[in-house]
Amino acid sequence: QLQLQESGPGLVKPSETLSLTCTVSGDSISTSYYGGWIRQPPGKGLEWIGSIHYSGSTYYNLSLKSRVTMSIDTSNNQFSLKLSSVTAADTAVYYCARSPYGGNHYFDSWGQGTLVTVSS
Amino acid sequence: QSALTQPRSVSGSPGQSVTISCTGTSSDVGGYDYVSWYQQNPGKAPKLMIYDVTKRPSGAPDRFSGSKSGNTASLTISGLQADDEGDYYCCSYAGSYTLVVFGGGTKLTVL
Predict the structure, then answer these.
(1) Do residues A88 and A28 make contact, with C-beta atoms less than 8 angstroms apart?
(2) Most buried of A19, A25, A28, A118 (most Cβ within 10 A)?
(3) What pLDDT does B1 receive?
(4) Who among B3, B97, B100 is closest to A105 (CB)?
(5) Over the stretch B41-57, which tens digit does the pLDDT of each residue have?
(6) Contact A63/B1, CB-based, under 8 Å?
(7) CA-CA distances (angstroms) from residue A46 to A1, A2, A26, A88, B88?
(8) Is residue A49 a contact partner of residue A38, using CB atoms and an 8 Å limit?
């Protein structure tokens, strides 16, 4: 059964870089699919951050593009997110999710989410 | 890219049907048959209920159905049950540059 698990610091200082990793189990990420990151500020809706193909090609939300970097580590079955110059507005639950082969426009498996708070 | 427009809340009684709308533009909802719907319960991750406008993944009840007309997609839940309560989000493909955009979410209350 496919499982995704986010990991990373739960507290990041303003102006620093948020770094999260998603570890995939139950399937190889080298089987032609996309890994995505979606966030949800407390009490608000979902916002797509970006998606990365196992080949390394990326798509980013235009409003975040200047601050986002995504990467993939096929040897460890992981993909990662870096968001630079964070502010309090970046406080959110961050989810990683999988888009299946042929469907980079939807997410069929999600991690449980991890809360990242931006505060000094 | 602006978020898709959803009603903030809808409600219905057990056994009834409710429909949640999701309005976009010809650059997203209207331009592609790639709308998906997610159910989210408090403190939980979203769960895929509908993809490609009308398709149900395994595990999603057949009481959930999707449709689209022009720039507006809809999710219909028939035979409402208490555990259908939660937040529902639509999502649409928005082109090879933007990829996807979510709706603002709709809170469903079962009376």
Answers:
(1) no
(2) A118
(3) 61
(4) B100
(5) 999 999 999 999 999 99
(6) yes
(7) 25, 22, 26, 17, 10
(8) yes
